[in-house]
Amino acid sequence: MREIEMIKEIQRLKKEKNAIILAHNYQIPEIQEIADLVGDSLKLSKKAAETDADIIVLSGVNFMAETAKILSPNKKVLLPAHDAGCPMADMIDTEKLKDFKEEHKDAVVVCYVNSSAEVKAESDICCTSSNAVKIIKSIEADKILFVPDKNLGHYVSKQVPEKEIISYKGFCITHHRVQGREVDHIRSEYPDAEVLVHPECSPDVVEKADFIGSTSQIISYAKESPSKVFIIGTEMGVLHKLQKDSPYKRFYLLSTGLICNNMKKTRLVDIYNALAEEKYEITVNESTRLKALNALNKMLEIS
Ligand code: 13P
Ligand code: SF4
C-alpha cells in the first residue's frame, strides 16, 4: 500500500472504530502528522484519562501504553510496536524497589512515570519530567526515594534542597551518554544559541543549559523565545515540531547520539496494523492497576 493510501485507511479505521492516536514527541514525523495528539508523557496521560474513544493507539513505548490502560481500564489500549520498551524503566523491578525501600524505611517513594505498572503500584506518587519539582515540593515528608532515574532525581534535588532525595541508580541510555564538553564545544560554534535540555541528561550537561524541561516544555520554550538559534539536548524526534512551529529559527541537536531506538520502532504501517487488527493489546492485572492508579491519580490531582 502506498503511504497516501495507508494514511486514508488509518483515518477511515479511526472513525469506524472510534479510535484515537496519541503519539509521543519522539515519534517519527509521519506518525506525528496523523496523530490526534502529540505530547510529552504528562499530556498523553491526561488525554488517555479523559478521552471518550473506545480504542487508544499509543504510539510510544510500553510504559506510556500501560499508563493509558491504568487510567482508562475500559478502553482497548494498543501499542503498535509490541517490543517498544524503555531501557530505563527496565532498570528497576518490584524486587529491587522493595530492597531499596527496606534500606530507607521512613521515606516517601516518588516514581518517575518511566516505570512499569508493578513499580508504580509499589510507589506512593508518580511524576513526569514536567512536574517532578512540583510533585516533590507538594510532599510533606522530608525524605524521598526517587526511582528509577538518578539524573532527574539529581536535578530535582537541586531545585528542592530542603528535602533529602535519595535516587535509585537508573538512567536513560540515550540522554545519559551526552557529555558536558559537548555543550562547551557546540556553544563555541553557536555563541548566540540557547541550550535546551531534558532533565534525563547527566548533571554536567544540565548545569550548563539555559533551560531544562520535558519534551513539550522544550517545544513551548523555543516557540516563545526571541532567540533564533537553539541547541537541543533531547531525543531528535522533537526537531519535527520545533521546526514546524518556528520555520525561521534554527535547531541543532546537542549530540549525534540523541536517538532512542525504542521510540523509532513504530512506523506508519504499524499504526495501520494496530488499527486494522487491534494489536498489540495492553493488559494490566487489576490489583496492580488499582495501586498504580492511586499513585498516578495523586500526581494528576497536583498537575
Ligand atoms: P517527556 O515526559 O519529557 O516527554 O519524557 C519522556 C521520555 O521518555 C524522555 O526520554
Ligand atoms: Fe526511555 Fe530514554 Fe527512550 Fe525516553 S529516551 S523512552 S527514557 S530510553
Structure write-up:
- Helix 1 (3-16) packs parallel to helix 13 (268-277), helix 3 packs parallel to helix 4 (62-71) and helix 4 packs across helix 14 (286-302).
- The protein has helices spanning 3-16, 29-34, 41-50, 62-71, 94-103, 117-121, 132-138, 150-159, 180-189, 203-206, 215-224, 239-245, 268-277, 286-302; strands at residues 19-24, 37-39, 55-59, 76-78, 108-112, 125-127, 143-147, 164-167, 194-197, 211-212, 229-233, 250-253.
- By secondary structure, the chain is α/β, with parallel strands linked by helices.
- Strands 2-1-3-4 form a four-stranded parallel sheet, with helices on both faces.
- The protein folds into three domains: 3-85 and 263-283, NadA-like (Rossmann fold), CATH 3.40.50; 89-171 and 290-302, 3-Layer(aba) Sandwich (Rossmann fold); 178-253, Rossmann fold (3-Layer(aba) Sandwich).
- Residues 25, 40-41, 114, 128-129, 172, 198, 200, 214-215 line the site of 1,3-dihydroxyacetonephosphate.
CATH homologous superfamily designation of the largest domain: NadA-like
The strand count comes to 12
Main β-sheet, spatial strand arrangement: 2-1-3-4
Count every helix, treating DSSP H or I runs of 4 or more residues as helices: 14
Proportion in helices: 40-55%
Radius of gyration from the alpha-carbon trace, in angstroms: 19 Å
Q: What ligands does this structure carry?
A: 1,3-dihydroxyacetonephosphate, iron/sulfur cluster
Proportion in β-strands: 15-25%
Low-confidence stretches: none
Indicate the mean pLDDT.
98
Main sheet characteristics: 4 strands, parallel
Number of domains: 3
Oligomerization state of this entry? single chain
Question: Which series of helices and strands comes N to C?
Answer: HEHEHEHEHEHEHEHEHEHEHEHEHH
Cα end-to-end separation: 42 Å
Using the 3D structure, state the CATH architecture of the largest domain: 3-Layer(aba) Sandwich
